[in-house]
Amino acid sequence: MNSILLPSRGRVTISEVASAAGVSKASVSRYIGGDRQLLAEATAERIAQTIERLGFRPNQMARGLKRGRTRLIGMLVADILNPYSVAVMHGVETACQRHGYTLVVCNTNRDDEQECRHLAALQSYNVEGLIVNTLGHHAGELKDLQNRLPLVLVDRQMEGFEADLVGLDNTQAVRQAIDHLQQRGYRDLLLVSEPLDGTSSRQERAQAFRTQIAANPSLKGRLLETNGDFTAKLKTFLTEPGPGPKAVFAANGMAALTSTASLRELGCRLFEDIGLIALDDLDWYPLVGNGGITALAQPTEAIGITALEYLLARLNGSRSAAQRMAFPAELRIRGSTQPRIS
Amino acid sequence: MNSILLPSRGRVTISEVASAAGVSKASVSRYIGGDRQLLAEATAERIAQTIERLGFRPNQMARGLKRGRTRLIGMLVADILNPYSVAVMHGVETACQRHGYTLVVCNTNRDDEQECRHLAALQSYNVEGLIVNTLGHHAGELKDLQNRLPLVLVDRQMEGFEADLVGLDNTQAVRQAIDHLQQRGYRDLLLVSEPLDGTSSRQERAQAFRTQIAANPSLKGRLLETNGDFTAKLKTFLTEPGPGPKAVFAANGMAALTSTASLRELGCRLFEDIGLIALDDLDWYPLVGNGGITALAQPTEAIGITALEYLLARLNGSRSAAQRMAFPAELRIRGSTQPRIS
DNA sequence: CTGTTAGCGCCTTCAG
DNA sequence: CTGAAGGCGCTAACAG
């Protein structure tokens, strides 16, 4: 009954299969390597049965060691608890599957030191390429790594670091948000963002917001980060006089969560007292307030798939200049931005 | 400028370090293997500098091949898009980190065939142990695997399959839910579950619900799965006469999402017309309806950590009978179960 | 078509 | 304390 708990040490190897089948290791290797055409029908059949009988599984580590190809792709995720990251990861995984690669994921946990450690770990396991959702520090390490491995960045780029990048067209997304809000009659906007810690996508969104607000005289806009006494500052925004109806623009899913929680806490009627639009579209947006939260959805699956495809291109020898893919966001209108009279 | 895009083939190996430092491969090996005590101070120092200078990283694959230890743990996740899975995974990862292991995650995507494929893949990469959130089919495969590797199950067990298991105390969680609802004055309950497809945790929750309702004459209870015309059936529940105030008990996060969406669609006032309690506690629960959704939180982090610890025990040679850890859920009361007069 | 021979990068006796 | 030699499981030329 407890035989179950006795992992019999020593897996069956190619040698055992070879001798059991009465052929050479090379033949078995050819069989499992897909060179079945080079084998006589009978030999192949005999090997097949022996493999089946013994439950042989080729050791990918050993294969990788010899061939220099591990069929492993590494992915570094800044925060696995962030639905965006998981969604992109899902896309990468789908594409990996499609191309016969296995994905190894490491979670940085927003920690610089772990980013370093995991980068080293991934490398030491001979991943063939890397998809990185970086924190934005460690330019040195990454540059160094890029000399050894193809590498593509997701969502976040780094200053002075040339690499393929796939993410969102932040400027356009911000434009869509502002246009939509303005069209719906909002005039006094607040961009809520997680702390501007250098993360490029956050910076880009904030910068685009500032620029576009500055260029639009009929709108007023402020920026607020979700740290510190966020709720208090949000209250200030709500109460101070402005040019017209107020709306919050949450720069990502976390900001949307925080903003909504604080608005509730402040006793706002959602969304009669204030409008809300959020970047990212999380599955609970439709459930909040009166009619749900209007969203700008990122094509996360496509972002993941494209990231892997860029990587594959490099693996196949592409030497072109760094590519950039900036996907457009998709506006999904819900109750939080109902038309209103200004 | 484009040197960045030229992954120089061929990483630096132990041999190069050895000759560059003027020592033997063995010495370098001893250095990186932690046998620094066996080396002369001067030799160690010289090796250290050479390694640094050349940017040498030991190839874990090769080490694994030789030593039989890869320091790799595999995890099979049924659905990476499920926040529960991700949360547990986060716990596993934390523990891995703590013990010097690297986690390789594969996502089954709720697909039987992929479960098989990934199981094979993981094994072929010489993971030392496996943490499995299985779909519950493939008892054969898993049993077979367990003969080679330590393996611990998370959340879901399999009939006739003896293995360490860590998850929730479903019976107690259901009891907590029912007790709470009853205490708050609800009398007519509806358990909403994702399809009962054999997933053990779903079955257990459904079974516990039936049993406890049957044993409690003052309560009426029905079970509804989220497939088919769920909303229509939910409407039936809402309109048909019952013994008193009605409440929905969502058996997990997905069920909570679906239920809430349907309740809104049906025009229910949340949560004056109906009560709601949900298993799992997702970050958006506080934002919904009047005061948020009451939850039974699972200690996901602890579940993940415990799973890895069980695995480590096996890796360290433990041969005890299969262990089971069933964590209690934690009740977090919110507005969806306000006191009411029956 | 098939077997033999070298290693891939590293660790591990076993002698110095 | 250190080096030389052999081999982990597998593949890749070469010869047959």
Automatic annotation (TrEMBL), chains A, B:
Domain HTH lacI-type: 12-67
Keyword Transcription: yes
Pfam families: LacI, Peripla_BP_1
UniProt keyword Transcription, yes or no: yes
Name by which UniProt lists this protein: LacI family kdg operon repressor
Alphabetic keyword roster: DNA-binding, Transcription, Transcription regulation
GO MF annotations in UniProt: DNA-binding transcription factor activity; transcription cis-regulatory region binding
Gene3D superfamilies: 3.40.50.2300, lambda repressor-like DNA-binding domains
Natural source organism: Azomonas macrocytogenes
PROSITE patterns from the UniProt entry: HTH_LACI_1 (PS00356), HTH_LACI_2 (PS50932)
CDD domains, sorted: HTH_LacI, PBP1_RegR_EndR_KdgR-like
Family annotation (InterPro entries): HTH_LacI, Lambda_DNA-bd_dom_sf, Peripla_BP/Lac1_sug-bd_dom, Peripla_BP_I
